[in-house]
Amino acid sequence: MSSTLRERIAEALRESIIKGELRPGSRLQEVDIAVAYNTSRTPVREAFRQLETEGFLQIRSRRGAFVTQVTPKDVREFYELKSVLESYAAKQAVTRLTDADIDRMSRLNRELKRLYEEQRYTEMIAIHNEFHEIFVRACGNDRLTGLITSLVKQFIRFRIAVSHTDAILESIEVHDRIIRAFRERDGERVAELVAHNSAQGANNLIQRMQIQVN
Question: Which of 37, 48, 61, 152 is least enclosed by beta carbons within 10 angstroms?
């Protein structure tokens, strides 16, 4: 029950942050949220910790939880790291991915497009993550896989933010090209496309942030 309630609270707060209802820098009150859900503070604190690992909240000692301020610099640095790590992992995975793995990536990409058309944005994140995880796990380097997984988990809000825009359609199209390159076992092309996908994500998100500011 506690786990389910924690997830419900985390989901509601996550959506409020994504939609802009909770602005960057806003302080979240444990007591108010606990009252709203008719619960103790424990599942609220658990939800806060989960959202902190995803990059949505910053928990400050003796001050509480605040919605994380995200700058274009944060976005650029995240995607630069992601580009370097994922493109290398993709190149290493070219000879290790099975045809079944690549077929799975193709099905996931079609599912991603369907969810977007149905405006089921939050559900898209797990599918999007799984698409990338298939080739990241196949790279043969457990430390690299762990680094990428940890990095993406901390900045999941970036991927969610882009999912709410037409930019995801560009990403889906690049995914199709990545799939073709994997089928052709073209390591250089795969690495190039994965790096391009990251740069595209950074540019689209920064553009969206600038529009919101203006």
Answer: 61
Token duo for residue 125? 């994140």
**pLDDT (tens digit per residue) in 39-48:** 999 999 999 9
- pTM attached to this predicted model: 0.75
Of 105 and 17, the structure prediction assigns the larger pLDDT to: 105
CB atoms closer than 10 angstroms to residue 183: 14
pLDDT given for residue 90 in this prediction = 98
Residue 128 CB partners (closer than 8 Å, separation 6+): 112, 159, 163, 171
Which residues, including other chains, have CB under 8 Å from residue 158's CB and lie 6 or more apart?
A: 55, 70, 75, 78, 79, 201, 205
Are residues 86 and 132 in contact, defined by beta-carbon separation less than 8 angstroms? yes
Phi, psi values for residue 135, rounded to 5° = -80, -25
- Record the tokens describing residue 90, joined without a space: 């993709």
